[in-house]
């Protein structure tokens, strides 16, 4: 299914996750974040980059692993991405919904 984001047609699944990571840009991420009610800051971008790197390295993503290895604590992660932090952060990062998310 196609969706217009940042002036581009991007492919998304039924939940709004990009299905082709090559279509991800910071502008696309900004628009997804806006839809999720998030104003991106430098801390948000550090988390997004960490999630993308973990995905590329095929490392399983969970809130716990992000808190242990990531650029922010679990508490900060919840503050940056309230109400489903891993789902929102993954969507903004342009990766598929992690298996650990319901």
How would you describe the overall organization of this protein?
The protein has 102 residues and is mainly alpha-helical. It has helices spanning 26-35, 42-56, 63-69, 74-80, 85-93, and strands spanning 2-5, 8-11. The protein has one domain (1-102): Arc Repressor Mutant, subunit A. It has five helices and two strands. A two-stranded antiparallel ribbon has the order 1-2. The longest helix is centred in the middle third of the chain and has 15 residues, at 42-56. The two termini are 21 Å apart.
Give the helices and strands, then pairings:
Elements lengths: L1 E4 L2 E4 L14 H10 L6 H15 L6 H7 L4 H7 L4 H9 L9
Antiparallel strand pairs: 1-2
Number of domains: 1
**Number of strand segments:** 2
Task: Please name the CATH architecture.
Answer: Orthogonal Bundle
What is the CATH level 1 assignment? Mainly Alpha
User: How many separate helices?
Assistant: 5
What's the quick description here?
The chain has 102 residues and is mainly α. It has 5 helices and 2 strands; from the N terminus they run ββααααα.
List keywords for this structure.
single chain; 102 residues; mainly alpha; Arc Repressor Mutant, subunit A; two-stranded antiparallel sheet; 5 helices; 47% helix
